[in-house]
Amino acid sequence: MSTADAALAAAILPLVGGAQNVESVAHCMTRLRLGLLDPTLARDEELRALPGVLGLVADDDTYQIVLGPGPVGKVTRAFEALVAQGRSAEDLAERGAAIRASRKAANATPLKQLLRRIANIFVPLIPALIGCGIIAGLNGLLINLKWLPSVTPALAAIASGFMALIAVFVGLNTAKEFGGTPVLGGAVAAIVVFPGVAKIDAFGQPLSPGQGGVLGALAAAALAVQVEKWCRRWVPESLDVLLTPTLTVLLTGLVTVYGLMYVAGEVSTAIGDAANWLLAHAGAFAGFVLGGLFLPLVMLGLHQALIPIHTTLIEQQGYTVLLPILAMAGAGQVGAALAVYVRLRRNDSIRRTVKSALPPGLLGVGEPLIYGVSLPLGRPFVTACVGGAFGGGFIGLFNMLGTKVGATAIGPSGWALFPLLQGDKGLAETAAIYAGGLLVGYTTGFAATYLFGFDAQLLAEWNVPTETAAPERPVEDDLAPDANPRHPTPASPEGAKLPSSP
Questions:
Q1: The domain spanning residue 98 has which CATH number?
Q2: Which H helix or E strand runs over 58?
Q3: What range defines the domain where residue 53 resides?
């Protein structure tokens, strides 16, 4: 750990209220994430002025100081050591708990809480989806090339095993998230994929194993939590260990096989049919709208509603046709950042931010460019959305012309999505269309930002040498579901204010 890292950690600590105000310390790719007992004690402007601090981001739970992908780990370790040394026996835990509860109650909305819970159910599954998706892509490539025929069956089993039982994992996570016993949630969700359900008739038709998929598993596990809680209230304590799990699995299981599986199956089928119809009949327009609106959805946290839809499409078709379109939002962001780099050629500080944020941006990590470049400037955020819209329209057009471009897993985007691409045509054609969409997104985002992303006032305020320019804006790392950027209007060298919107 360098002296500079330790010095930065020491400078940050008093500006967030001291060790007694720090409840938790963590970090991600670029952020030092702090749980502060009283966030109002943090001195934002003084923190932004520290050399090495790229910006601030806050959500409902954490105060986040953006340090960049290199220093963040070292500064975090030094900061943790200082906090451990600086905390007194009389800390603010009790007062902080009340402040946090009050703040969360004021900021949380029912919709946001529901979407966050949905994200908490599915996000832990993403590593397995990515791993299995890449293996499935590798297996498809080997089959197409007719290489290693003795190995491909094993790869197929490895890639498909998780997807065959994903409903069980969804059930476990759902029960855990809603306050039930995870294994009971997994038990009722397992009914959905049990082969024996084929012998059961519901609504005059035999059920199919897997009918309803992850949506059926989610509904079954959520119902199981409610049944379990009811049993805990009414079953005598002496019989609780026997009756509660039995009644939970029995009652929920009957509702699942004679209702939820059928209803969830119809919903899942409707989602798949709607996605296919939309892209087949209005692919270019749908892609334009989806690609253009994805960044604002992320800013509002509403993109989490798409996670079950992606998972349902992957379960049904083997890939989601929506993710490559939505990934074009990141391409527009890259193009916009490049235009900012060119237009603000005298501002070395912002240009350094762009250079540091571009590599993760190319790999689909969009927050550094959002919070570090486009959003604080206002107009470039809108023009970045324009780039995403044209990139999404490009891919949507090819879907409309009969070539589906999909992804076998959710999570990665940008260049990182190439190993997960799959469609109804060859891998080369699928990858070429996706690459074309990226190129359109880059080009359009650059052109729109270069031509329309700056007015005279914006250039006058920001296209100045580093020593007189406004401080660098936040740089972020991953599309956090509930990110709420702190981006007060930055001051110009002359004290003028940058418009917060185009």
A1: 3.30.1360.60
A2: strand 55-58
A3: 3-108
